[in-house]
Design brief:
The protein has 316 residues and is mainly α. The chain has two domains: 6-146, no CATH class; 160-299, hpI Integrase, Chain A. It has 16 helices and three strands. It has helices at residues 6-13, 17-29, 33-46, 56-75, 87-97, 111-130, 151-154, 160-166, 171-181, 187-191, 219-225, 242-255, 266-280, 283-290, 295-299, 310-313, and strands spanning 198-199, 202-206, 212-216. The chain has a three-stranded antiparallel β-sheet, with no helix packed on it. Strand 2 and strand 3 form a beta hairpin. Helix 5 packs antiparallel against helix 6 and helix 13 (266-280) runs antiparallel to helix 14. Residues 152-315 form the Tyr recombinase domain. One of its GO terms (biological process) is DNA integration. One of its GO terms (molecular function) is DNA binding.
């Protein structure tokens, strides 16, 4: 995969309107995928609602989607600047029937993957409109059916696995897992924690979208962080990239006898949300703890007990 250099993206954003339009039109006319990725990222970082605060993860996901959509469009006879009104729907249908290439998986692409690819293709057309290359909106009426299986069912929280796995972690890896499973941090937030962010029983978390929140640290989290020496001059407690720590966590899950249970770090965050909800019965408080802007998001992080209202309905 070709990486898009940030300098190339900034150079596009700094072009005059006419020069940007010419570059975008030429790239779309010749199906120049990498230039179209640059145009999309230039738009996302300078013209979208979040602008420069657009996360690197979102930029990478949209780049992957553009790299999928543009070759499909070329092979399918779609003129990028003058697409047919049904071309967006054709792409969605193709994604829904495409076999998955995930390791150990079978069937077709998941609904979440389809939605991510379509979101990236929509971003490409917003970028082309921003660049003045076209007014086309081929995905305006394209419907992406939601996944009928709730995320909490497809990817439930780790529960007993956490304790088993911690026994096989070194202190720093254990601290990372506990930050996710007990303090409710996203793994990207945990990896950027600095010693100076810890003030007694509180942690300042630099979260998604540039938001900052204060998270209370339980006794076990404080004990896990105590004595961890910073590993960078800036005081960071971890110097791992995401793929490094994912590899390490896969190994300790396997060592603990839970090789097939590994479902990524979000399941650890759901562990925290589920336990806190069971203690408080309050989605609003759980959402504030997890850093959610919507309670609807929080509901997707809580595994409800089957008989949660048994006592309440007993005397109906």
């Amino acid at each position: 995969m070709t990486l898009v250099r940030r300098s190339d993206t900034l150079a596009l954003a700094n072009l005059t309107d006419q020069a940007l339009r010419v570059r975008a039109v030429e790239a779309a006319s010749t199906y120049d995928t990498e230039t179209l990725v640059q145009v999309t990222q230039a738009y996302m970082t300078t013209g979208s609602r979040k602008g420069a605060r657009t996360s690197a993860k979102t930029l990478a996901a949209y780049a992957l989607a553009v790299r999928d959509f543009v070759p499909w469009a070329q092979a399918s006879g779609v003129q990028l600047l003058r697409p047919g009104r049904r071309d967006g729907g054709r792409y969605v249908a193709q994604l829904q029937t495409r076999p998955t290439r995930g390791r150990g998986k079978s069937g077709t692409l998941s609904a979440a993957t389809v939605a991510q690819y379509v979101a990236g293709a929509r971003a490409l057309y917003r970028a082309l409109r921003w660049a003045g290359a076209t007014d086309a909106q081929p995905f305006e009426d394209a419907h992406v059916p939601p996944d009928p299986t709730p995320g909490i069912v497809k990817n439930p929280p780790y529960m007993r696995e956490v304790e088993d796995v911690l026994e096989h972690c070194d202190p720093r890896l254990a601290a990372l897992l506990i930050l996710c499973a007990h303090a409710g941090l996203r793994v990207t937030e945990a990896l950027t924690v600095r010693a100076g962010d810890i003030q007694g029983a509180q942690l300042t978390v630099h979260g998604k979208g540039g938001k900052t929140r204060r998270v209370p640290l339980g006794r076990r989290v404080r004990a896990a962080l105590h004595g961890l020496a910073p590993v960078t001059p800036e005081g960071h407690l971890f110097d791992w990239q995401y793929h490094h720590v994912q590899y390490r966590m896969r190994k300790v899950f396997a060592a603990a006898g839970h090789r097939s249970a590994w479902r990524g770090f979000h399941a650890a965050r759901k562990h925290s949300g589920t336990r806190l909800y069971r203690a408080t019965k309050d989605f609003t408080r759980v959402g504030l703890f997890l850093g959610h802007s919507s309670v609807d998001t929080t509901r997707r992080y809580v595994a409800m007990e089957d008989n949660d209202v048994q006592n309440e309905v007993e005397d109906f």
